[in-house]
Every structure is written in structure tokens, then in C-alpha cells.
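User: Reviewer 2 asked us to show a designed sequence for the structure in our supplementary figure. I'm pasting the C-alpha cells here. Could you produce the per-position amino acids so we can include them in the response letter?
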């Protein structure tokens, strides 16, 4: 109801403004005609008298613009005039329109990607317990966090400062559930990854450090909740299923909590919890 009342009031206002504008136009014509009559009586021709009257009045178009502005509606007319002008220009330059639309689309897309990355890596807090106590280990002479596996083992075994030292790496693999193979991004993680992050599984179990007995000793996979929902449609019987990654068999043993999507950032490869 409030919107309807506002629209009726606005419509009444515009109708009244149009009537006033017409009255002003009529009054303007009368003033010019009267002055032209006076000038014609002084010996000027009718055309010259009307011209001189308009000059003395100070400019008809200027008076009209000031009158419209005083009535409080000129900004709407100017807006409509600008829109009509823009439409005419765009119709005459279709190539420019296409280029502008493509440029805007690319700019908006790039900004959306940057914001998504910033939101995931910076703005949104890590979805792990006690996230403020999570640290990263970097080299002293560079910002790299990459370590070889032997270096990681040495750091983990010699650690006396942190609760645990975990290692992980993001890579892409050929993923095959037995139907249509796809390319997926995965996180390769040390056996103590989930224990070090203090996480509990949503379904099944996580792998542990005790599962590691040398190379290729723990061919297990834990699915993210979103991946499980999208690819397996929340099927709880997925536990124990064997899938192929780069043509190697891996057994699904668990599903991560819904709010955990990894503690991703750009360069961390070894993370530690401070005691």
C-alpha cells in the first residue's frame, strides 16, 4: 500500500508540474507578445519587434530551463535525455558496445576470482580447532616452505617445541571412480595430518601416523564433505570403495567435516601446532 500511495502521489506531482510548465510557457509567450506590440508601435517590423523582445527578455531557453529546475523535476528529464542519448550512441557503435561488455565481463570475473581467493585464504578463518596456534615453517633466506621428505622426517623426529609437525602438498591427479575419468586437485598429506589439525571425521575414519610403514604403505583417501556430496550423493556406503588416482588404487576410508576444506594458503608445506 505504501508503494502504491507513493506512486499515486508521484504521478500527481508530475501531472501538476506539467500543468505549471504549460502555464509558464503561456505566460512567457504573452510577455513577449506584449513587448513586441510596444516595439512595433515604435516603428519596428513585427519580426524585428519579436526578435528584440526575446533578446530583452534574456533568452527564452534559459528561462525555460530555470523554470523547469524551479519546479523540481529537471533532474529526471535530464536523466531520461542522457539515457536516450546513450542509446543512440550505442546503436551507432555496436563494436564499441561489444568491446565494452567483454571488458566489463572480464574485469568483473577477475575481481570475483581475486575476492574468492582472498576470502578463502585471508578473510575466512581456518576451519580447524585452535587455528591461532597453527604456524608455518619457512626457510630463513627465502619465503619458501617447501621441504624434501627426508628433511620433514628429520624436523618431525627432532621436534621438541610443537605438538606435532605435519606435511602436505597440493597437486592434481587423474581421478577415476570406474566411469568417466576427471582431473581433480588433491592434498597429499603425512599420516599425522588430521591428528595434527585436531580434526574428527564426519564419516568413517582418518589415516594416522601408525598407518605409515614405508613408501606406498597407506593407500588411503579421505574425501572432503563437498566432494562426497557432489560425487557420491551422500552415500554412506562409500567407505571401503576403491578409486583410481593416476591409475593407482586408493581406498576411501573417511569423509572430512562439512566446514573443513583444507588449511590452504599459497606456500605452506609444513605446519606445526605450538604447545
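Assistant: Here is a per-position design you can include in the supplement:
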Amino acid at each position: 500500500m505504501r508503494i502504491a500511495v507513493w506512486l499515486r502521489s508521484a504521478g500527481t506531482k508530475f501531472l501538476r508540474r506539467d500543468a505549471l510548465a504549460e502555464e509558464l510557457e503561456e505566460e512567457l509567450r504573452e510577455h513577449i507578445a506584449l513587448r513586441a506590440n510596444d516595439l512595433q508601435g515604435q516603428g519596428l517590423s513585427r519580426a524585428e519587434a519579436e526578435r528584440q523582445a526575446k533578446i530583452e527578455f534574456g533568452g527564452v531557453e534559459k528561462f525555460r530551463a530555470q523554470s523547469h529546475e524551479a519546479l523540481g523535476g529537471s533532474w529526471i528529464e535530464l536523466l531520461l535525455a542522457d539515457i536516450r542519448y546513450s542509446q543512440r550512441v550505442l546503436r551507432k557503435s555496436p563494436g564499441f558496445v561489444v568491446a565494452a561488455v567483454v571488458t566489463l565481463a572480464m574485469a568483473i570475473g577477475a575481481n570475483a576470482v581475486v575476492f574468492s581467493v582472498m576470502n578463502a585464504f585471508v578473510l575466512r578463518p581456518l576451519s580447524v580447532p585452535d587455528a591461532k596456534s597453527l604456524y608455518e615453517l619457512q626457510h630463513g633466506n627465502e619465503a619458501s616452505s617447501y621441504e624434501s621428505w627426508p628433511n620433514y622426517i628429520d624436523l618431525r623426529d627432532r621436534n621438541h617445541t610443537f605438538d606435532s609437525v605435519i606435511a602436505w602438498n597440493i597437486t592434481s591427479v587423474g581421478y577415476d571412480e570406474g566411469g568417466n575419468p576427471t582431473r581433480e586437485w588433491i592434498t597429499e598429506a603425512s599420516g599425522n595430518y588430521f591428528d595434527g589439525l585436531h580434526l574428527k571425521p564426519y564419516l568413517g575414519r582418518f589415516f594416522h601416523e601408525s598407518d605409515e610403514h614405508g613408501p606406498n604403505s597407506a593407500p588411503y583417501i579421505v574425501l572432503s564433505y563437498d566432494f562426497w556430496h557432489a560425487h557420491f550423493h551422500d552415500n554412506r556406503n562409500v567407505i571401503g570403495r576403491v578409486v583410481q588416482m593416476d591409475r593407482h588404487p586408493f581406498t576411501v576410508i573417511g569423509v572430512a567435516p562439512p566446514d573443513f576444506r583444507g588449511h590452504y594458503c599459497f606456500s605452506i608445506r609444513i605446519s606445526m601446532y605450538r604447545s
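For the response letter, you might also mention the following. Strands lie at 134-136, 162-176, 182-189, 203-204, 220-223, 242-245, 248-255, 270-274. Residues 1-15, 264-275 have pLDDT under 50 and may be disordered.
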